[in-house]
Design goal:
Distance between the termini: 78 Å
Number of domains: 1
Number of helices: 3
Order of helices and strands: HHH
Strand content: under 5%
Oligomer: single chain
Radius of gyration: 27 Å
Number of strands: 0
Structural class: mainly alpha
Largest sheet: none
Length: 70
């Protein structure tokens, strides 16, 4: 039992270093793809102002200022 406990951290550290190396390599290779993925996800969830034709029209701004007494 003691031998297993002594060997396990060494095997774990070796596996951790292998995973770290593989992860950094993958990140370097796919950074551009990841940026494209993030952009696509953000554009899917964030609606641009142009979706609402009344979003920032001068009439809307004027009316909101009248309501706020500006």
């Amino acid at each position: 039992m003691l031998m297993v406990l002594a060997v396990t951290p060494v095997m774990y550290l070796g596996a951790a270093h292998g995973i770290t190396a593989a992860t950094s390599l993958t990140t370097q290779v796919t950074a551009t793809q990841y940026d494209a993925f993030v952009s696509a996800r953000l554009s899917a969830h964030v609606k641009p102002i142009t979706d609402n034709p009344l979003a920032y029209s001068s009439k809307t701004i004027h009316e909101s200022h009248k309501q706020m007494n500006i």
